[in-house]
C-alpha cells in the first residue's frame, strides 16, 4: 500500500474517531442506543457545505454544523425524556426526519465544494502538500476533542452524566436531574458526529445525502475494536481506545481493498465492514475463553 493510501486511511480514520467518541458517549456512557448518528453525520456535512458554497467563512460554517448536530441530538433526547418514547425508537424517528431536513438544507442531493475554500485550504502553507496537511490538522482536532471529552466527564456535571448512564435510579436518588443529563449527553454526542460530518465534507470535496449511511456501524465497530485492542476502565484510556479503534478500522479497510491477492474491490466495502465488525464482536469472548483455559491449566 502506497504512502498516499496510508495517509488517506489515516485521514478518514481520524474523522471517524470523532464519530467513535460520539458513539462512545451515547452507547457506553449514557447507555442510550442512538441511531441519530446516521442523520447527524450528513447534517453536519450539509450545513457546512451549504454555508461554504454560499460564501461564508469555513470555520463559521463548521461551528454552525456542530450546533446543528447538537440540536438534533437534543431533540432525540427530548423525544425520549419528555415524550417518553423508547430511546431506540426516538433515535430512529430523528434519523428518518433528518433525511428530509438534510435535503432541505442542501436544496439538492449534493453540494460540491471542489472550487471553494475550506478550513484546510485556509491553513495550508504553500510548502506542505494537502494530503499531508489534512491528517496533521485532523490529528490536532481529534486530540483536542478527546482531551475535551476527558475533562468534561471528569467534572462534576460530567460525573453526573456517567452516573445517569450507569444507574439512573441511584442517580435520581442522589438528586441528579437524569433527564437534563441525558439531553446534554445526547447533544454533545451528536455535536461531535456533526463535526466529523462537516470535516468529512470538506476533505471529500462536497456533501452528499447518502454519506451518512452506515455511520453508526462504523462508530460501533471503532468502539468495539478499540475496546478489544486496549481494554480499560479509566475514561482517558477508553476514549483513546475509541480513537485508535477508528484509525485501525480504516487501516484494515484500506489494507483489504488494496491487497491484490485478496481480489476485493470498492463495491466490497460493506462486506469487509461486516466481516470486521463480526471479528471485533467475537474477539473479546474468544480472548476470555483462551485466557480462562490458560489460567485453568496453570
UniProtKB/TrEMBL annotation:
<feature type="transmembrane region" description="Helical">
    <location>
        <begin position="209"/>
        <end position="230"/>
    </location>
</feature>
<feature type="transmembrane region" description="Helical">
    <location>
        <begin position="60"/>
        <end position="81"/>
    </location>
</feature>
<dbReference type="GO" id="GO:0022857">
    <property type="term" value="F:transmembrane transporter activity"/>
</dbReference>
<protein>
    <submittedName>
        <fullName>ABC transporter permease</fullName>
    </submittedName>
</protein>
<dbReference type="GO" id="GO:0005886">
    <property type="term" value="C:plasma membrane"/>
</dbReference>
<keyword id="KW-0472">Membrane</keyword>
<dbReference type="InterPro" id="IPR001851">
    <property type="entry name" value="ABC_transp_permease"/>
</dbReference>
<feature type="transmembrane region" description="Helical">
    <location>
        <begin position="88"/>
        <end position="107"/>
    </location>
</feature>
<keyword id="KW-1133">Transmembrane helix</keyword>
<keyword id="KW-1003">Cell membrane</keyword>
<feature type="transmembrane region" description="Helical">
    <location>
        <begin position="237"/>
        <end position="257"/>
    </location>
</feature>
<dbReference type="Pfam" id="PF02653">
    <property type="entry name" value="BPD_transp_2"/>
</dbReference>
<feature type="transmembrane region" description="Helical">
    <location>
        <begin position="181"/>
        <end position="203"/>
    </location>
</feature>
<feature type="transmembrane region" description="Helical">
    <location>
        <begin position="6"/>
        <end position="30"/>
    </location>
</feature>
<feature type="transmembrane region" description="Helical">
    <location>
        <begin position="269"/>
        <end position="286"/>
    </location>
</feature>
<feature type="transmembrane region" description="Helical">
    <location>
        <begin position="136"/>
        <end position="160"/>
    </location>
</feature>
<keyword id="KW-0812">Transmembrane</keyword>
